[in-house]
């Protein structure tokens, strides 16, 4: 049986043409798009394999980039001080994003001016944002659906954030562990394993807590047999008990 590090960090991705087409075709805003538009979008995206910890740089796309996570997971974060950062989002297979510089022209909604790095072995599909805009303009239904999807994501994230921040620290950690566990495919030998690299510092940043507070709560969960953890990983052992500590309704 592979160890947890091997489970979380496979040697490589298998992002072949069939996988790419499957991931792209399941994007929510493509349901009403013309078949020719879908084909054009697939042809415009290029595949890139990222090892855990590798940064995604918008510099190779001077106009910003449109990206889709085909396999694996990435985190979006911003440094706010010496070795201090805030994690804004975790994107997993099927999630899309617009990433670049806010001062550029064109699509600005849901742009990340921050840093993006892989949380595990990841296959990323990407294209220059300037190439996306003509594709959107060619299909009015696609453009409406694209911005509708972005708006819905922002509304959902904002509602979750407002509810989340009102709860005590223990509830925040419990909610985040459940939420992150649902962000990726389950591992057969470790069904409770959060499916990507997760440090205590990342968890504290997502919860808006100090590292000391986050670690204290996680240690208490381990003592109660709810989770177990190691360097860069957390595995949920008792889902009902964890859920009872997380009265934060999902949105």
Question: How would you explain this protein's 3D organization?
Answer:
- The structure is a single chain.
- The chain is 40% helix and 23% strand.
- It is of the alpha+beta class and 251 residues long.
- The protein folds into 2 domains: 4-164, Jelly Rolls (Sandwich), CATH 2.60.120; 168-244, Orthogonal Bundle (Arc Repressor Mutant, subunit A), CATH 1.10.10.10.
- The strands form 3 sheets. A 5-stranded mixed beta sheet has the order 1-9-3-6-7. The protein has a 4-stranded antiparallel beta sheet with strand order 2-8-4-5.
- Strand 10 (227-230) and strand 11 form a beta hairpin.
- Helix 3 (35-44) runs antiparallel to helix 4 (129-138) and helix 7 packs across helix 8 (211-223).
Notable traits:
Arc Repressor Mutant, subunit A, Jelly Rolls, alpha+beta, 11 strands, globular
Question: Which helices and strands occur, and which strands form pairs?
Answer:
Elements: H1 4-8, H2 17-25, H3 35-44, E1 46-50, E2 55-56, E3 65-71, E4 73-81, E5 84-92, E6 96-99, E7 111-112, E8 115-118, E9 122-128, H4 129-138, H5 140-165, H6 169-181, H7 200-207, H8 211-223, E10 227-230, E11 233-236, H9 239-244
Parallel strand pairs: 6-7
Antiparallel strand pairs: 1-9, 2-8, 3-6, 3-9, 4-5, 4-8, 10-11
Helix pairs in contact: 3-4, 6-7, 7-8
């Amino acid at each position: 049986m592979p160890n947890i590090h091997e489970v979380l960090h496979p040697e490589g991705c298998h992002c072949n043409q069939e996988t790419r087409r499957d991931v792209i075709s399941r994007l929510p805003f493509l349901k009403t798009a013309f078949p020719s538009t879908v084909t054009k979008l697939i042809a415009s995206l290029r595949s890139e394999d990222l090892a855990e910890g590798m940064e995604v740089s918008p510099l190779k796309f001077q106009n910003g980039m449109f990206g889709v996570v085909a396999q694996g997971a990435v985190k979006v974060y911003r440094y706010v001080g010496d070795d201090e950062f805030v994690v804004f989002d975790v994107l997993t297979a099927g999630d899309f994003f617009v990433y670049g510089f806010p001062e550029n022209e064109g699509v600005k909604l849901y742009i990340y001016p921050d840093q993006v790095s892989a949380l595990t072995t990841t296959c990323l599909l990407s294209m220059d944002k300037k190439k996306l805009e003509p594709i959107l303009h060619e299909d009015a239904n696609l453009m409406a659906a694209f911005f509708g999807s972005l708006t819905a994501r922002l509304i959902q994230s904002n509602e979750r954030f407002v509810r989340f921040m009102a709860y005590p620290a223990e509830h925040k950690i419990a909610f985040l562990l459940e939420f992150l566990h649902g962000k990726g495919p389950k591992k057969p030998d470790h069904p409770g394993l959060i499916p990507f690299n997760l440090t205590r510092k990342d968890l504290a940043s997502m919860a808006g807590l100090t590292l000391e507070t986050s670690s204290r709560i996680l240690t208490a969960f381990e003592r109660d047999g709810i989770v177990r953890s190691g360097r860069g990983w957390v595995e949920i052992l008792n889902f009902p008990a964890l859920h009872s500590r997380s009265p934060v309704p999902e949105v």
